[in-house]
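Lay summary. Proteins are chains of building blocks that fold into shapes, and those shapes determine what they do. In this project we predict the shape from the chain. Here is one chain we studied, written as its sequence of building blocks.
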Amino acid sequence: MSIKSRADFIRRFNLHPHARIDRPMDDRLRKRLRPAAVLIPIIERQHGLSLILTQRSAKLRQHAGQISFPGGRYDPHDQHLLTTALRETEEEIGLPREQVEVIGRLQDYPVLSNYMIRPFVGFVSPQQPLMAEAGEVAEIFEVPLADILNMNNHYAYRIRKFIYDRVYFIPWQHRNIWGATAGILRELAEQLQPEHRQQVRPLN
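And here is the predicted shape, written in a compact code that computers can read:
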């Protein structure tokens, strides 16, 4: 299966009903989680589709130096969580919300830092070079979507952490995408190609 164009992506994304993923949480934990949102930005290139990711600043208190999507916590002034994702994307990588076409979202994803992240998927068409916000983002880079969809690149280490029984890793070049970012990318890959659900390379 190959997804090389925007039309291919949207067709595959909408082809299958979103599988409801059971996340074992009690009411006390659910109430503790604060709302947040991220954007999974997809850009069309000559070679095909790519994902835009960021490497967080090493100076941040939480998740310093990790690879992530642009996004952040919900602000009371935000109209809704999509507003949060678009606002944070503009602040972190200088991409105006008018240059984002949101096509859907994935299931909310709880994380250890007590946030419930809502991932939105959108195609972006930057009209200017992206600019990293120095206080939060060390670098902006792209990963070919084909590399993310290749399940041979998905590794899992079995360990009980938070509500999960494994941590996912997606090595790419000299980088290591892991944790919530890898988990969300895996759910995106499974949404696009459900025939490959459960396929993973175990590390232990």
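What the prediction tells us: The longest helix spans residues 179-192.
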